[in-house]
Batch of 2 targets.
Target 1
Amino acid sequence: MIKRSIGRKVGCRLLMVVLTTLTVALSGCSSDKTGDSKKPETEAAQADNQAGNADDLSKLIVGIPQDLDSFDPHYATGAGTKEVLFNIFEGLVKPDENGNLNPAVASEYTISEDNKVYTFTLRDGIKFHDGSAVTVEDIKYSIDRNAGADGSEPLVSSFSNIDSVNILDDSHVEIVLKEANSEFLTQLTVAIIPASNEHPENKIIGTGPYKYVSSAPQENFTVTAFDDYWGDKAYIKDVVFKIESNADAVVMDLEGGSIDMFARIPSSQVAQLSDKFEIYEGTMNLVQALYLNNKVKPFDDVRVRQALCYAIDPKEIMDFVSDGAGVEIGSAMYPSFGKYFMPELNDVYNQDVEKAKALLTEAGYPNGFEFTITVPSNYKQHVDTAQVISEELKAIGVTANIQEIEWNSWLSDVYNDRKYESTVVGFDASTLSAAALLARYETDASKNMFNFSSEAFDKAYANAQATSDDAEKTKYYKECEEILAKEAANVYIQDLPEFVALNKKFTGYVFYPLYVQDIAKIRPAQ
Amino acid sequence: MKYIIKKIISMIITLVVVSLCVFLAFSIIPGDPALRMLGTEASPELIAQTRERMGLNDPFFIRYFRWFTAFLHGNMGTSYNYSVPVSGMILGKIPITLTMAVMSFLLTILISIPFGIITAKHEGGILDRVITVFNQIVMAIPPFFSGILISFVFGMVLRLFTPGGFISYKDDFGGFIRYLIFPAVAVALPKIAMTVKMLRGSVIDEAAKDYTRTAYSRGNNTNGVLYRHVLKNALIPVITFLGMVLADMIAGSIVIEQVFSIPGISRILLTSISNRDYPVVEAIIMGIAIVVIVTNLLVDIIYRIIDPRIGIEE
């Protein structure tokens, strides 16, 4: 019936309408394309490393994997947030790429003989991003705010040691401690912000080489070079931190030109990148380990922990996870910490399946046992590591089941409540002090998620804190590291490799011993 | 009138149930917003103090009631993560997701209705067969996959757009629309296929009914029958379907926003869930629920305009 009623004319007319609409739509879009965006793109492709025009080089687009968790530098906790804010805020002192602390907002400092009074001289003429001069009141306000001087809990737990912050004159401030601490300077990288700013959570004012311009949640965070910066000014004028929440799109976005730089890209993605990009290789400054809950069976037995150390080969893990890149570690310290790092601890346990089996038998597990590795699923490198570990442990009859959980569940269940058997993660150091990595092993530390307990360790750690002699301090810290290795607190694996892809139009990326991205050092390649 | 009141009451009940479900879900799933904000370096005392400040220690119903009364007053709260009012945060994102949904919806209508009619008229013909086969293929491809293909072909090979190079509507509206064409096509493709299939079936069904013969016998020609009689009836099930499609395009943009790196509502929703940023999640879910309910209401009204015989069920 329908067939009979075919009206060709109407059919044709309809088809015409559709086609014209489509043609108009498509031609409209393609003519616009040739108008602006297509041309520069092909030019850029042809010109390879050389930039088409100078304007391109005054703007750098950096891809970051997640949005900032807070704009208030004192409340920001995510490593991914701090590495961005590093470019905007500065403390009294500031770390450099070699692990030194250099004066920043303060131009010089003195530490009293008894390590209790730290006196700072305000840098002459230093200005905030809003043009106002930094004053000693701002310093006192910033330190007090972190120390919870108004009676609230301190934001930086080590600041509970601050007795008072005293303004001496227009350019001098002293910080008086309750108990002597020779390493307190490492904590004073906390941002100095203006006391007059009532809304530091959304009004961003610091003293760093870049100042805040604008931001859009889940889109970008834009900064521009601060002309009145006291130190070496940034080379690149405008920097956009673009949030790249889809990890799989990073290569496409780099090649397509919507971002110029991305840090911490996995080695598999490095292999997909063209020669338009320079790959900088460094380390992530993390202590990656199979962390064990020292309180649950069977890990409460040191022999079982040692058996795992003998069964697991970090080299093999590196081969599988990142094509052999990475640096082996044998204790809770990574190589960027120079004088504290002890490469000899890598050889405390070299892979030895027979020895591992013997230790297990001795501990009463001749046929092995079964346990769970709880891994945060958003960290692919840790998940991969857990998988290699699970394979390696089969050789000694131990079955490791991998349970992937979401990061928040990891934080609350594993980290905070310590309800876990084992986990694979990496710990970073928040300051340039060995204590930043070792403090969490003290028996009573609230951060001691491993439930590790050793009198010898506690003693050595306390000794290190008490002394102000650097050589002696280093000696005690090294003792701590040795104890962690001998006691097999955890199965220490590696400091993960970090690959940074930077478009060859730019150069000058530097790695820090801390988790930061120093954009001010990046400059145009020409 | 009674009908409208009834609809509005059921709408309010639905919203209350939805918001309660979201609240309940968040109190069941693990993860603590205070801990999430403070990270691994915070002292237990600081975490306790922050929980108290955020009001997380209060019983479930008190928290729910507090949120609900604020919401009724138009106050959606402050984002835990960004320390800015949720309303402002979401308002900036609505144009993005909405534009994309409207674009893909327009594409769906503009392409599927003519094609549906043509295939029905030419039932069994070559064009019909080609389109039917093509339809089957397109229906089987999920948007995320066609999205990746489109990114690769139009972005990497033909360089018609920069993958991931989303341009905000505030900076350059033309560039914004141009960028959104590609994800809109990816979203629209399977919907077009489904609508064509549906309309074709519907027109063929209606054309087989007695009134069609009557219409012919009254001296109408083919087009007259088709456009004046058959199509009107055939469109009713299609409109229901299109209503669902529109709601689905807004609510279901999560995947495609990820594929094309579009910072729209869904991206905020996803990250807020993983950040345990409850106020934002609540507000977005409520927004989506409202859109779905209002679309359904509109569909009901359009029904009645097209076919006045559809009465109000008392």
Target 2
Amino acid sequence: MQPGLESYLALSGILFTIGAVGVVYKRNAIGMFMCIELMLNAVNLTFVAFSRYYGDVSGQLFVFMVMSVAAAEAAVGLGIIIAFFRNRLSVDVDDASILKF
Amino acid sequence: MAGTVLFFLFAGFAIACAVSMVYHRNPLYSAISLIGVFLALAALYLTLAAPFIAITQILVYAGAIMVLVIFVIMLLNLDEDKPLNRLKYLYAVGGGLGVALLAQTFFIFYAVLKAPKAEVDPNTTVGKTMSIGRAMYTEYLLPVEIVGVMLLMAIIGAVILVRKMEHPHLELVGEDEDEKE
């Protein structure tokens, strides 16, 4: 006995919502970064659930691709954060306003 | 029955950890909460009969990405966030976004609940490492190669971004003009 597909989709939607709201509310660049990781994970859960319930392996391959993109994003994103910290001694996104009108 | 109990246990743990991640101001607490979310999701992948993805989740996310994040937090010696004094309309934007996404989630929940059930084949081998490997190196060979090139690009980009430049080429225009006068 296993919960249906709709339960997994609901959990994924709730996690995605928390991540999206977190990106808007957080002002710390690393906090925003972690919220984006949470959203990627919510999408991964959807892929695995569909892959299980429709018996297709493509969903799990896509999870693999999403994880690779997340790893690349971690490397480049944290590099940007470190470069920003060197210039401004802060990771607050409100301090990154030099391009603002 | 046991599957349902496990699902609600790990789903509750994942949601609690996610809320704790957004709630905490200290980035280190946020990172540890996020690791809890990853572990709960790995357990959920196991209940979905996807052991390869579950192990990869722990290795890549909890093992590699979060170690990198915590390393950066320690390196930059970040303290707690300042109290929120951002633009006020961001609260409205965040709240509206959350309400819209939650409404969409419940709509999808009821739509899938009403739809005809997809039956799970108990003898399926979809999540096994062998079937994933076979699909990865036959049908999906080109995307896997492209992912490899993308990872190489990410490595090069990260090295170039973090490299320390002795003579920075970018300077503020205003300061330059002041010196001439």
